[in-house]
Amino acid sequence: MSEALQYTPYEHLKRKAFQEALPMNCQLELTYRCNHLCSFCYNSPTGEQEMTTPQVFEALKKVNKLGVLYVTLTGGEAMCHKDFYRIAAEVRRLGMALRIYSNGFLMADKKVVKRIKALSPMEVELSIHGSRPETHDALTRIRGSFDKLMLCMENLHEAGIKMVIKCPITRFNQDELFDIKAIGKKYGVQTHFDAVITPKDDGDLGPLSLRADDEVVRKYWGEWFSELNGGAAPPRANHCAGDSEANCGTARGGFTLDPYGNILPCVAFRRSAGNILEIEDFEEVWHKSAVLNEVRDLAVDARSKLDKHEDGQYFTFCLGVAEIQTGDPLGLYPQAEINAKSVRRNYELLQIQDPEAKADSA
Amino acid sequence: MDSNPRRHPDTAFRPVGDEGGLVVIPGRSEVKVLNPVAIKVFAMLDGSHTVEAIVAAVTDEFDVDDQQASTDVHAFLDDLSANGLLAKPGEKAPWEVEL
C-alpha cells in the first residue's frame, strides 16, 4: 500500500516533518526561578546569567525563522519570569502558537487567568502531585499549593482554556492515582501519568528515591493502565516517535532552549549544540551540528538495539535518562526494563482476554 | 474583502517541505492541513501583499494560468473569510489589546 493511502494528510505531514527533522516545537525554559520546591525537580541551575528579555526576544526571532510552529514556555515556573506576559505575547506576535507548562499556583487568581486567556494559548499543562493537600503539598513543599491548583483549574475551565494535567507517579501519590484522575475528569480533562521519575539534569540521582514501588509500577502498566488512561492500551513506543525508525523525537520534532540560551536536543537529553545568542544561522546549526546529528543517529541506534531485546517492542526509552543513569545513552536503565516487562505482561493478559483468542484455543 | 488581506492573528502556520503545511488555530484548538498552493497563499497573508500579487506569486511558482490562479485564490480567501481565518480591517489580536 502506498504511503499516501496509509496516512491521513495530517499524519503524512507530521511524518514528513519528522523524517526531515523539521522542528515543530521549541520548549523554552524561561527561568529556573520557581515558587515551588518540588523534591524531585530535575532542573539544575548553574548560577550563570539567564537570558535577559531582549535576549529572549532575539532567541525567539531565530526560533521563528527556523519555522517552529509551537513554543512551549516552561521553567522552573515560567510565570515567575518578570516579563512572562511580554515574552508570551512576543511568541504570538511572531506568529507561533503558545503552550504553557505551569504549576498553576499563580493562576488561582482570576485576573491572571484573564491575561492568559488574552494570549490564546493552545493549552496550559499543569502538574498535580496528589489528590489531597497533604500529598500534593508534601511534594511541592509549599503549603496551600494544592488548594491554589484547584482554584487554577476552576478558573481555566471557566475561561474555556484547554488544560492538560500531568502527574508524575511517586511513592507519595501512588495510592491516589484514581482520585487524581477523578479531579481531571471533573473538568473533562484526561490526566497523563508518568511512571518515570528522572534524575536531575546534573546527574544527581536523588529524585529516584521518590520512585513508586515496583509493584505499583507493574500495576500501573498492567491492570490499572486502561482505566487510568481513558481506555487506551499501554504505549509500545515513545509518544514522540510515531512509527519512525528513531526511538523518539529528540533533535527532530523539536528542541529545548535552557534559560542560558543553550540549544538542547530535547528536555531530557541535555547536550548543548551551541548557544542561540552566539549563532547567526540557526537553520545551519540545526541541520549540520555534530551534536544534533549524533543524537539523531543515537535515537535510531536505540530503536535498533531495543528491537533486539526480548521485550523490545514494549519499551519506552529515554536516551537522556539512560546517559545520566548508566553513562551510556543506549544503556538500559532499571525503570525502562521494569516498564517494558510490565507492558508486555499487560499485552499478554489482553491476548488471553481476547474473545477471538479464546475461540481459537477452544 | 481587504485589498491586502491578513490572516487572523490567532493562527500559526508551518510549511512542511514542498508538500503543504499545517495551520494551527489556538483559540479553537484546531489544526488544518493545507496543500502546497494554499500554504503559499496563507504565508503571504501578512497584510503587505495585494490579492493580485498573491495570484502572480502562485502563477510564478505553480503550473497554473492566471485565470485559474485568480479563481482559486479568490475561492480560498472566501473560504478563509467564511471560517473566520482572515483578520477584519483594523482587527487586533487580544494580546495586543488586553495585556
What does this structure look like?
The complex is a heterodimer of chains A (362) and B (99). Chain A starts with a helix and ends with a helix. Helices cover 42% and strands 10% of the residues of chain A. In chain A, helix 5 packs across helix 7 and helix 9 packs across helix 14. Chain A is built from 15 helices and eight strands. With 362 residues, chain A is an alpha/beta fold. The C terminus of chain A is likely disordered. In chain A, strand 1, helix 3 and strand 2 form a beta-alpha-beta unit. Chain A is globular. With 99 residues, chain B is of the alpha+beta class. Chain B has a three-stranded antiparallel sheet. In chain B, a hairpin with a 4-residue loop joins strand 2 and strand 3. Chain B is globular and about 45 Å long. At the A-B interface, helix 2, helix 4 and helix 5 of A face strand 1, strand 2 and helix 4 of B.
List keywords for this structure.
heterodimer; A: 362 residues; alpha/beta; eight-stranded mixed β-sheet; 10% strand; globular; B: 99 residues; alpha+beta; three-stranded antiparallel β-sheet; 3 strands; 40% helix
Helices and strands, with pairings:
The complex is a heterodimer of chains A (362) and B (99).
Chain A: H1 3-6, H2 9-19, E1 25-29, H3 53-66, E2 70-74, H4 84-93, E3 97-102, H5 110-118, E4 123-127, H6 133-140, H7 145-159, E5 163-168, H8 177-186, E6 191-194, H9 214-221, H10 225-228, E7 254-257, E8 263-264, H11 282-288, H12 290-307, H13 319-326, H14 334-353, H15 355-361
Parallel strand pairs in A: 1-2, 1-7, 2-3, 3-4, 4-5, 5-6
Antiparallel strand pairs in A: 7-8
Helix pairs in contact in A: 5-7, 9-14
Chain B: E1 12-15, E2 21-25, E3 30-34, H1 36-43, H2 51-61, H3 66-82, H4 94-97
Antiparallel strand pairs in B: 1-2, 2-3
Helix pairs in contact in B: 2-3
